[in-house]
Amino acid sequence: MQKNTDSTLVLEFTSNWVGPPNLYIISKTAGLHNVFTYRSIAENRFGPIYLPSGIKAEMRSGSNRRIYSTTPSINEFFQPYPMKDKDVRILWSKMNAHKPWLLTDDSTNGEGCPTRKTEITKNGDTIVYDGRMYDGGGIRLYLITKDKVRFLDYYAPDYYEKECPGRKDRIAILTIGSLFSQNIL
User: Fold this and answer.
1) Distance in angstroms between the alpha carbons of the first and the last residue of the chain
2) At what angle do helices 168-183 and 85-96 cross, to 10 degrees?
3) β-pairing verdict for 23-29 and 32-38
4) Which is more confidently placed, 56 or 132?
5) Is residue 14 domain-resident?
6) Collapsing DSSP states into helix, strand and coil, what is residue 38?
7) In a domain, 39, yes or no
8) How far is CA 180 from CA 49, 95, 119, 125, 154, in A?
9) Is residue 16 within 8 Å of residue 135, measured between CB atoms?
10) Contact 26/95 with Cβ under 8 angstroms?
11) Dihedral sign, CA of 49, 53, 59, 64?
12) What range defines the domain where residue 69 resides?
């Protein structure tokens, strides 16, 4: 993407479960805006397709094996997403309203909430609750230009926004993630 576009946003919802990559991509080159996905070709995002279980299992098995052993790039898993040009431009504009190029992530702002401890007593046992999430997912955003690639990583941003609301960069990444997931199946 770096050599083929002027600027690109690549979003990935991460999980602590092992799964194939599922990337949402929006790019701009001169006046041309495009949306792509990078995911297993066995994943159908346009509705149910009813197949005999053996065929479906074989399709998933082969595609998923290949996607795990392939570095994300322009290959069979990289697909243009059908979207009207006007809608892609609006989506690009809405995402850029949150200034993704200026965001800072957990490596700068710290993961989670400021340290706090709450003691909870149940049935005579005292539990110390520190408000942290230990098995959540996250959001990764890759910002790609011709000059550089920048990587942002947010751990459990939806959980921490509820626990200690108000961090502007976390709110921005949640909004950008929501824009991707609402517009790209």
Assistant:
1) 21
2) 170
3) antiparallel
4) 132
5) yes
6) strand
7) yes
8) 24, 9, 39, 44, 16
9) yes
10) yes
11) positive
12) 7-183
